[in-house]
TrEMBL record, chain A:
CDD domains: TM_PBP1_LivM_like. It comes from Geodermatophilus nigrescens. It holds the Pfam family BPD_transp_2. This is Branched-chain amino acid transport system permease protein. The lineage of its organism: Bacteria, Bacillati, Actinomycetota, Actinomycetes, Geodermatophilales. It is found in: Cell membrane. The keyword Zinc does not apply. PANTHER family: HIGH-AFFINITY BRANCHED-CHAIN AMINO ACID TRANSPORT PROTEIN BRAE, HIGH-AFFINITY BRANCHED-CHAIN AMINO ACID TRANSPORT SYSTEM PERMEASE. The chain crosses the membrane at residues 47-65, 71-92, 124-148, 155-174, 212-231, 262-283, 311-328, 348-373. GO terms for cellular component: plasma membrane. Residues 1-20 are annotated as: Disordered. Its main location: membrane. It is a multi-pass membrane protein. Keywords: Cell membrane, Membrane, Transmembrane, Transmembrane helix. GO terms for molecular function: branched-chain amino acid transmembrane transporter activity.
TrEMBL record, chain B:
GO terms for biological process: L-amino acid transport. Residues 1-18 have a biased composition (Low complexity). Belongs to the ABC transporter superfamily. It comes from the Bacteria. It holds the Pfam family ABC_tran. Keywords: Amino-acid transport, ATP-binding, Nucleotide-binding, Transport. PANTHER family: HIGH-AFFINITY BRANCHED-CHAIN AMINO ACID TRANSPORT ATP-BINDING PROTEIN LIVF (PTHR43820). PROSITE patterns: ABC_TRANSPORTER_1, ABC_TRANSPORTER_2. This is Branched-chain amino acid transport system ATP-binding protein. Gene3D superfamilies: P-loop containing nucleotide triphosphate hydrolases.
UniProtKB/TrEMBL annotation, chain C:
One of its GO terms (molecular function) is transmembrane transporter activity. The chain crosses the membrane at residues 6-27, 34-54, 60-82, 94-115, 144-163, 190-209, 215-234, 241-259, 265-286. Coiled coil: none annotated. InterPro entries: ABC_transp_permease, BCAA_transport_permease. It is found in: Cell membrane. This is Amino acid/amide ABC transporter membrane protein 1, HAAT family. It comes from the Bacteria. CDD domains: TM_PBP1_LivH_like. The keyword GTP-binding does not apply. Its main location: membrane. The lineage of its organism: Bacteria, Bacillati, Actinomycetota, Actinomycetes, Geodermatophilales. One of its GO terms (cellular component) is plasma membrane. Keywords: Amino-acid transport, Cell membrane, Membrane, Transmembrane, Transmembrane helix, Transport. It comes from Geodermatophilus nigrescens.
Length: 387, 263, 294
């Protein structure tokens, strides 16, 4: 009797498993035909879909910036530079499986470059300044990446930690050029007249330097995420995933693991460079204290909270980095702490969150939600199959 | 084909136990009894209701092809793998849920696959780890092990990673003996060893069983050698007991040998 | 010449603290294949606990004992509560957990004790010995105490691991978890004890560094975690003796950098040394055939 049951249940299991690979390959082969493709209103072509999302996000950003006050506009700038860097780190850690605690230092490269280039009589156009900052950081990233490609896990973490602790020393060593402990104040470019005009016609709000920089930050963020999203969905992104998950198989199928790791590092360094440039504008100061190991760890927190490998997660995590401290600072001050002490509470929370996420939900916020959705869908599919 | 094999299993194993009981030698009391033991790795079933007994003062060999569940059986008995069903009785005590660390104090020594030498420690330290749980142990006990295995005695101060495969096997058996086990679980001791060394080790096992009343549950893929030294044979296939019988009779059953033992 | 001698001596002394800290990292790495990036922050916390006691009128020695004891407790609790679940899992998860502890504990120090620098009065004078009319700036009663303290700890650890049954059980657990369990060793307890001991050694390193620099901020161990890691990697990360030699070599090398090139480049120099070692001799300076495990 029991023997009769076994083959039956085995064949049922077989059917279930033979179904799973088909959906998996379908999803990975035609990245455009995502699981959502069937009922989504979004176009099937990846590029088109991402463009549409980009436009929607841009509209959303304008609405957000015009319906909130300047204080909030400034906060959005902070979210933007965290998110740009976290997006790059997501690609590196989430997609390619390499950890970096050196992205704060890479942001410093972008930030100091921007500060120096803007601190002249006739500064170059901002776009050019940003591109130079990105290029320079990419070069540094390539150097770091070549070393990093041969390391993994704790070794890579330790090496990039050393980078984060060591690199700010340069700012102190070349204090004539880089301003030493005090850092460099950033002379932000004036907002152009057309911007003032557009804002006035759009919302009637008065334009200001803060608003101008908020728009620049958001524009940088959107462009970065658009590029990163396309990259991650492309063949390149799949190769990175293969390098992470199937090291041996990838190598056997002719993928040069080292080269791909270096490329991933360069791309994420470029994002960090841009993030540093935006930081310079938003904070108006580049100083060693702005690029400590704590910055790198905060970025890591952002991508882990959001869910490794998800850009949306990186964005949500970055927003938490900016808005959580405000909430906690108020709480801390009500507990009679001085402002600096109260500000530290948020880092206690970040650390605890990092640990808790790793212990209880290693997939992060977005990942956990996705997993839950997938499970639900699978359950429903199973129910349908049974019925 | 597979179904008929599976069908035969319960009947054969029941009959097998009966046979060995009724066999030529008087029934020895069981030192280890395994009843309906099942285990799984995730969705994959590795053991499916295994029942067997290791009799006191005898060698019981568990045979079967790669993936038959032999190693999992030993790991489940000693608690490294948690069973999904069934129980393990050691000297009349149910030890199914006992922690791994407690097994050795209850009289079970498990020498895992791949020999389990701690390569970073010296030969002498490896032996001492084996007796740690007993508190202070007299030097004479170590000397006895070294007498049994003169080859490792010469190298007692060296780190174990310098030992050859055969020497490692001797070391782990010696280490297991220091725990004064009632039953010794041996996982593929012949793996990767020259036939001459295998014969030497099996002969020594036989001697220990015959002279000191040790009981052995031996897992082997090398069925021919194992049956030559064992009293009883248990054949596993796909996580189930296919047959249990007197070792000599198993070795003589040509159909069975071809179907499951590959010689 | 005098400066060279001074820098070398100073390097050996600071290096001995790096060595102790690296040793703590190696103890943990050996048994759990985890680099405890939170070790610096943990040591900073225990040092601040000691400072609080000393400020409240207790002697340095009471502070030291309490710091070491709290290190013991923190190390054990950390292993039991947050490390145990990630042991043997993906290595990235364990790395992130220790980093989470790092940031949380460091911030906790600021919340509890304030963000400002605190003066740390060394137990002995930091004024260098005089030989004739030359002053050996780096050799003072306090630095001699540092050397002796580190030496004592190392002798104690060697004695524990070489000559005691507990030490043998700990080593067996570190090198062969499963075999050790089958042989009746309570591996879980040994791992907890390993983390606790490592935290004690780390706490001592924190107290010694604090006495040398005389001022401590909540972040004062940031560079020590890097230097300790570099020293441990120099020695191969698996070898306690390697960690000690690595610590001394690094201490002297960084002392020269500090003396001849400037304080600001010390961190970068450590980075360069680390990267060169990792790329050229990944198994450490003293590796023979065994390479770093992938």
């Amino acid at each position: 009797m029991s023997d009769l049951q076994t083959p039956a249940s085995a064949s049922a299991a077989g059917a279930a498993t033979s179904e799973a690979p088909t959906t998996a390959t379908a999803a990975s082969n035609a990245s455009s035909a995502q699981a959502t493709g069937g009922r989504s209103f979004l176009p099937r072509n990846t590029l088109l879909r991402h463009l549409l999302v980009l436009v929607l996000c841009a509209v959303g950003a304008v609405l957000l910036l015009e319906s909130t006050d300047l204080g909030f506009n400034a906060q959005v700038g902070y979210v933007a530079f965290y998110a740009i860097a976290a997006g790059g780190l997501t690609l590196l850690t989430g997609l390619n499986g390499q950890i970096s605690l050196g992205h704060g230092a890479l942001m410093a490269v972008g930030g100091y470059t921007t500060a120096l280039l803007l601190d002249v009589e006739e500064p170059l156009p901002l776009v050019v300044v940003f591109l130079i900052a990105v290029a320079l950081t990419s070069v540094v990233g390539a150097i770091v990446g070549v070393a990093a490609a041969r390391l993994h896990g704790p070794y890579l973490a330790g090496a990039t930690l050393a980078l984060a602790v060591g690199l700010p020393g340069l700012a102190l060593h070349f204090d004539d050029l880089l301003g030493g402990e005090q850092g460099l104040t950033v002379s932000t470019p004036d907002r152009p007249d057309w911007f003032t005009e557009i804002i006035r016609t759009l919302s009637g709000n008065p334009a200001s330097g803060v608003k101008w920089i908020a728009y620049i930050s958001v524009a940088c963020l959107l462009v970065t995420y658009f590029l990163l999203a396309n990259l991650m969905r492309s063949r390149v992104g799949r190769t990175w995933r293969a390098v992470r998950d199937q090291e041996v198989a990838a190598e056997l199928s002719g993928i040069n693991l080292g080269a791909w790791r270096v490329v991933a590092f360069v791309v994420s360094a470029a994002a960090a460079g841009l993030a540093g440039a935006v930081l310079a504008l938003v904070v108006r100061l580049t100083a060693p204290t702005a690029f400590t190991i704590v910055l790198s760890l905060s970025l890591l927190t952002a991508i882990v909270i959001g869910g490794l490998g998800s850009l949306l997660g990186a964005l949500i995590g970055s927003a938490l980095l900016v808005f959580l401290p405000r909430l906690l600072r108020d709480a801390g001050e009500s507990l009679d702490m001085d402002a600096a002490q109260a500000a530290e509470i948020s880092y206690v929370v970040y650390g605890v969150i990092l640990v808790l996420v790793m212990l209880f939900a290693p997939a992060g916020l977005v990942g956990s939600v996705r997993l839950a959705l997938m499970k639900q869908r699978a359950r429903r599919a199973a129910g349908r199959a049974r019925g | 084909m597979a179904e008929t094999g599976a069908h035969g299993s319960t009947a054969a194993s029941a009959a097998g136990v009966g046979l060995s009981k009724g066999g030529g030698t008087a029934t020895a009391p069981a030192v280890l009894e395994v009843e309906g033991l099942s285990a799984a790795y995730g969705p994959v079933r590795a053991l499916d209701g295994v029942t067997l007994r290791a009799e006191s003062g005898r060698i019981t060999a568990v045979l079967g092809a790669n993936g038959a569940g032999k190693t999992t059986l030993l790991r489940t008995i000693s608690g490294l793998v948690r069973p999904t069903a069934g129980r393990v009785v050691l000297n009349g005590e149910d030890v199914t849920r006992s922690p791994v660390e407690a097994m050795v104090t209850k009289g079970m020594s498990h020498v895992p696959e791949g020999r389990g030498v701690i390569a970073e420690l010296t030969v002498d330290e490896n032996l001492r780890v084996g007796s740690l749980f007993r508190g202070k142990v007299g030097q004479d006990e170590f000397d006895r092990v070294y007498d049994l295995f003169p080859r490792i005695a010469e190298r007692r101060g060296q780190t174990a990673h310098t030992l050859s495969g055969g020497e490692r096997q001797m070391l782990v058996i010696g280490r297991a003996l220091l725990a004064r086990p009632k039953v010794l679980l041996l996982d593929e001791p012949s793996l990767g060893l020259a036939p001459r060394i295998v014969a030497q080790i099996f002969a020594l096992l036989r001697k220990l069983v015959d002279t000191e009343g040790l009981s052995v549950l031996l897992v082997e893929q090398n069925a021919r050698s194992a049956l030559s030294v064992a009293d009883t044979g248990v054949v596993l296939n796909l996580g189930r007991v296919v047959v249990t019988d007197d070792a000599a009779r198993l070795a003589g059953d040509e159909d069975l040998r071809h179907a499951y033992l590959g010689f | 010449m005098q400066e060279f001698v001074n820098l070398t001596l100073g390097g050996v002394i600071t290096g001995s603290v790096y060595a102790a800290f690296a040793l703590a990292l190696v103890l943990i790495w050996r048994s759990t294949r985890i680099v405890n990036f939170a070790q610096g922050a943990m040591a900073a916390l225990t040092t601040f606990i000691a400072i609080a006691l000393i400020d409240a009128g207790q002697s340095y020695w009471v502070g030291l004992v309490v710091a070491l004891l709290s290190g013991l407790v923190i190390g054990a609790v950390v292993e039991r509560v947050v490390i145990r679940p990630v042991e043997g899992g993906p290595e990235l998860n364990a790395v992130i957990v220790t980093l989470g502890l790092f940031i949380a504990i460091q911030a906790l120090i600021s919340v509890l004790f304030g963000v400002n620098q605190r003066a740390f009065v060394p137990p002995f004078s930091n004024i260098g010995f005089r030989i004739g009319d030359t002053t050996l700036g780096s050799l003072s009663p306090n630095t001699v105490y540092t050397l002796i303290a580190v030496l004592l700890v190392m002798v104690a650890l060697i004695a524990l691991f070489r000559f005691t049954r507990l030490g043998l059980a700990m080593r067996a657990s570190a090198f062969g978890q499963e075999v050790a369990r089958l042989l009746g060793v309570r591996v879980g307890r040994m791992l907890t004890l390993g983390w606790a001991l490592a935290a004690v050694v780390g706490s001592l390193a924190g107290m010694l560094i604090a006495a040398e620099t005389a001022f401590v901020a909540p972040t004062f161990m940031d560079s020590l975690i890097v230097f300790g890691f570099v020293a441990a990697v120099l020695g191969g990360l698996d070898s306690p003796i390697g960690a000690v030699v690595g610590g001394l070599v690094l201490g002297v090398a960084l002392s020269y950098v500090r003396g001849y090139l400037g304080d600001t480049l010390v961190g970068l120099a450590a980075l360069v040394i680390l990267v060169v070692v990792l790329l050229v001799r990944p198994g450490g300076l003293f590796s023979t055939t065994q390479t770093r495990r992938a």
